[in-house]
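Researcher: Next sequence.
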Amino acid sequence: MTTTSPAPERAPAASSAKQPLIDVRGLKKWFPIKKGVFQSHVGDVKAVDDVSFTVGRKETLSLVGESGCGKTTTGRTLLRLLDPTAGSAIYRPTPDREVDLFDLSTREMRRWRRDLQIIFQDPYSSLNPRITVGNIIGEALRVHGVCDASEIDDRVSELLVKVGLWADARNRFPHEFSGGQRQRVGIARALALGPKFIVCDEAVSALDVSIQAQVINLLKDLQEEFDLSYLFIAHDMSVVKYISDRIAVMYLGRIVEIGTTREVFENPQHPYTQALLSAVPSPDPTRKKQHIPLKGDVPSPIDPPAGCHFHDRCPVAEARCKDRYPDLVEVGSGHRAACHLL
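Model: Next structure:
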């Protein structure tokens, strides 16, 4: 049974190696489709459909897949930026306390906002152009009463230096910064309240390659320093391989494979995962790599195919794949995949 007691004081993350920090079970997010004068409900966009995963303490779990597969919706629903249709999200701030984020009211959820933050994909539209960087970062400190008003400027300066900027940057507006610098401001804003868990929603996809490397290294350094856990949403497999501890592969709103980074890259089991990895360019020009082409386009989440959603594009599909959606089965230590052929 979950509790909704006030948010606890920060505790060292190293005390709970066996319990996950976040435990998501049966998450669904369906967007209703309404038509007509009376706005009748005629269907649903099944953006996320029965997704389950865990994120450990000081762990990075990456969600990967094609655009439109439900990665961003999963992250935003987990943080209650979108209301879930069904499921649970158990958050364990300490080993002996847990709370279901999906059962909380808006007022109760506010108590836990300090622990759960997000870094948005677009460093341009995610920062208010009308206020200074100091006010952007300091707003959360004021709202949550983290420090006295006289201490906010010093705290903001400290955060800016921590993410690789300079203290006086707090007096500038977002348009005075490059894309990479703006994303550092976004990271500083996410760190302001001392969170335990951060959703990185395509946090480097809008940046140049050289800047991507700097920001990824910054995220890894901050994770080590502040004992952070990340849900890292991305589609660049080379970035995912570098930053992740585990990887979950999504297709049309469902997880089709999940495992350690090494297992997923070296021993992919689901045909979709194999196709994704076959498209990753190799830095060795002499290495021959077989590309696995996929037929057609991703089906609509409004009316997904019966059975395995991937069967109409799968190069090895069988007749039974059209009848029933496969279960996620164990194919190795902590490695699971959803495919009838397994």
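Model: The longest helix spans residues 209-226. The longest strand covers residues 40-55.
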